[in-house]
Amino acid sequence: MPRRLDTYLKDLVPEEKLDFYSTVRDFADAEIAPHLLQWERDHVLVPDDCIRKMGDLGLFGLPIEERHGGQGGDHTDLLLMGLALGYHSQSVAITPGAAISLGAKPLQLCGTDAQKAAHLPDLAAGKRMFVFGLSEPGRGSDAANPEVTATRDGSSWVIRGEKCWSTNAHWASHVIVHALTNPDGPNGQRSTCFLVPMDAKGVSYVEMGGKRVWEQSSTGSIVFDQVRVSEQDILGELHSGFKVMVTTLNGGRLFIASLALASLAFALDRTRTYAEERIQFANQPIGRFQRVQDVVVDMDIALERNLTWLFHLSRLYDENRLSREQAAKVKVDSSRVASDLLVSAMEVCGGVACLDEFGLIRHHNDLFVTRVGEGSNFALKDLIVRPLRTD
What we know:
This protein has 391 residues and is α+β, with helices and mostly antiparallel strands. It has helices at residues 4-12, 15-31, 33-42, 48-56, 75-86, 90-110, 113-125, 241-277, 290-318, 324-349, 360-372, 377-385; strands at residues 129-133, 149-153, 156-167, 172-180, 191-197, 203-207, 219-230, 234-235, 279-280, 284-285. It has three domains: 4-128, Butyryl-Coa Dehydrogenase, subunit A, domain 1; 131-239, Butyryl-CoA Dehydrogenase, subunit A, domain 2, CATH 2.40.110.10; 243-388, Butyryl-CoA Dehydrogenase, subunit A, domain 3 (Up-down Bundle), CATH 1.20.140.10. The protein is globular and about 80 Å long.
């Protein structure tokens, strides 16, 4: 049965981009889908061999300029990659996704020429990854006011504190640390971002255990014990870390929305296929019953609607016209509707939906991350409502 996702993409993206999506989709079918269940049962991260193959395919360099070894693509290419890989596994998709949107992208947008020349070629090739150090044990949604500090000491800065929930920490060569540098400054001018090598003196990392979502994705806790960095390690302007963070998260929220819709697309195909194969009650497929049809139709409507919305916003992002509210809205709605409808899909499929080999329980668990990642939905609603208030 053809994927319903592919039907909608034909009308939403140009032919050359559809060809790119098809290449990544076929790669995922051949290199990820056959091994995914074993990776899950063995509780391993995305294998290095799979990462190397994604690097050979050029996935880590999608939006990076060709002069720095990238593909010179746009944000639509990144979203298509998210849909193609996320259809099978958000864990796999977020590995190059976060490496780009949270690692290479802030360097590309805010880095100096020297920083770009030093790092972007290896990042584009997938030889190295950057991780964005944003969340902290005591700071989640209030990320604009970090507890990690960087204090000036002569010509250097000394960083102290801990970052957690850092995606791709296991493979990272550097961490972009969002640290408090100007505690008495006005909102939006209190923090600075620094490029810190993971092997720098005073940096330690441990993989966060017990996670039951994005199980093949690396999620690390990174501690900074009086880590000394220089002025040349500042990413962006001094005391403008909030600007770097906002610029980074805007595009990242669109990518998270693509992962939610990839899970919805998988659930739609799995459910409508199962509904035609499952024979019950007077020897009929359960897909003939209206209650089952209601779930399938609702999933189909949501997929077409949110894909159309997402790719419209992707064009605005590439034109530098996407607002924070717009990015937040599509992330909130896509994650919420996909999560809610997937639960209904599991009810349609019954007990088999609980089995790992059926696939729905994987997407059920991973969809939770789309509701809290890149800003929790509750916190983002506070951002969304601001233009609607009159006071």
